């Protein structure tokens, strides 16, 4: 999988959560999200308990609340969609602060916000305690098709290459006094986008030739064989099992 590759969501640490094998954390996060989605929307108290469980995980992982909340902003588009639902949904109406809102829309908005926020928070905790390279190794360990793992690996690494190339081109434009101020500068930006595409394509060809010359034949070598003990699996799955208990109570009560 190559050398280590840090990402902006990752927060370096030495907590028990950081030390867990990546495939155990991936399985636990996926199971937790499935349980949350399976919870009836009427059991509002259950979602509060899910938030408490994630808070305990964040505390054990030593991830500050500010760090987590800042990265939850990624779900803003979904929040905007949820806010519109009570206004556009059909069915029984109810007056709230002088506004006529749909009852089904209100429940739908709550469902999207609660489950979406918990799912995003769980994913952020996973990303903040697991490096990208470890995530790829975890997916490989969970028997995800090798081709998909390779595509994800190349996409992540090549995305940084393209971003760095864009930064160099922007610096080159600014060093020549260029500053995009209106529609009349779109032509220059379009030419820059075309040049970026050509450079990226050529860089991809050079990288592929370099890999072939080093023996690449369609499969990446496994450098680290990641394994997990029964105790580590038990520790990782404590979150989804606790959530499952809450989910069952939500359906029963």
TrEMBL record:
Subcellular location: Cell membrane
Residue intervals passing through the bilayer: 43-60, 72-89, 109-127, 233-252
A Pfam family this chain is assigned to: CbiQ
Keyword Membrane: yes
Membrane-protein topology: Multi-pass membrane protein
Principal subcellular localization: membrane
Entry superkingdom: Bacteria
Protein name as it appears in the record: Cobalt ECF transporter T component CbiQ
Keyword set, alphabetical order: Cell membrane, Membrane, Transmembrane, Transmembrane helix
């Amino acid at each position: 999988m190559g050398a280590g590759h840090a990402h902006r969501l990752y927060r370096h640490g030495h907590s028990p959560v950081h030390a867990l094998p990546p495939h155990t954390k991936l399985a636990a996060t996926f199971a937790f999200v499935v349980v949350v989605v399976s919870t009836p929307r009427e059991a509002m108290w259950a979602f509060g308990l899910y938030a408490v469980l994630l808070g305990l995980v964040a505390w054990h992982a030593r991830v500050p609340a500010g760090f987590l909340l800042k990265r939850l902003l990624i779900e803003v588009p979904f929040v905007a969609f949820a806010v519109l639902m009570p206004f556009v949904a059909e069915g029984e109406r109810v007056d709230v602060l002088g506004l006529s809102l749909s009852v089904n829309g209100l429940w739908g908005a709550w469902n999207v916000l609660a489950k979406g926020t918990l799912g995003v928070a769980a994913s952020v905790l996973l990303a903040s305690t697991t490096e990208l390279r470890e995530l790829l190794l975890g997916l490989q360990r969970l028997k995800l098709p090798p081709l998909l793992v390779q595509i994800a690996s190349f996409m992540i690494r090549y995305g940084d290459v393209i971003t760095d190339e864009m930064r160099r081109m922007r610096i080159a434009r600014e060093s020549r006094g260029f500053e995009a101020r209106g529609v009349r500068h779109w032509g220059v930006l379009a030419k820059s986008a075309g040049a970026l595409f050509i450079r990226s394509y050529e860089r991809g060809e050079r990288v592929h030739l370099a890999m072939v010359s080093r023996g690449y034949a369609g499969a990446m070598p496994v450098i680290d064989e990641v394994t997990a003990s029964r105790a580590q699996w038990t520790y990782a799955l404590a979150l989804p099992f606790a959530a499952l208990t809450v989910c069952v109570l939500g359906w029963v009560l």
